[in-house]
Design brief:
This protein is an alpha/beta fold. The chain contains 10 helices and 14 strands.
Length: about 300
Amino acid sequence: MNQQQAKRILISGASGLVGGALQVVLREQGHEVFALKRSAAQEGVATWDPSRGEIDLSAIGQVDAVIHLAGDNISAGRWTASKKASIVDSRVQGTRLLAQHFAACKNKPQVMISASAIGIYGDRGPELIDEQSTLGEGFLANVCQQWEASTAIAEQAGIRVVHARIGVILDRNGGALSKLLPPFRFGAGGRLGSGQQWMSWISLADVVASIQFLLDTAQLKGAINLVAPHAVTNQQLTRSLASALHRPAFMPLPAAIVRLLFGEMGQELLLAGVHVQPTALQKAGYSFRHPRLEGLLAEQLS
């Protein structure tokens, strides 16, 4: 049963695409929302520095829920050794710091929702994947496994921990769709590689609504896939987006060029694929705002 009541909620990564949208909706629903920042620009702000292991929540007091979204952008540039270290550290250090802090609190939050990603399953081709599937291999899969493991102390302390494995977010104001729109609007879009790689996507509205659902649904814990129920291949995305924009899409980017331009990041983010199902969300009764890609594109591009 969902228990709708006002909560005191702490959000890390509150200035990002998901965090920004989530704050607005939660406040509209009457929740008291606090952003976790690196510096206190005003009174009553919670601060932290994960790299130094420092956190100060004295300005906000006890919270009922923690939504942890912070992490270095994985798609910003090639994965050099320093970039890969930053991707790992920004997730593991921050998650561990929050988990340790709240595990030691006398008045613990009821729930900690910690972002993860479907990259944890690796490149799985056409195999249908859900929360019970085995985990994958590769850099992203290893990062996600370390990321999720960093909450262990919070779980051991009795806090309900949810690993929100988020898919590819499609929204015209951010995420993958915003990057695809310019070339497709100029008729310069096309499939990536073979186009047969699966893309398990989700709308920003459904990311926000499903996190709200996770807050209020006490029986949900552990790994939860945040993806729409109808994944598409890269070829299907290409055709649907071109059709919605009334533009051609005849400029494919060969896999060799993707690897040359983007290296390991291009291989894992653009050429690899995984067909993920939101089994746990659907069994718990969550109803998707945008279950199919065509409906989302019609709304976003109208």
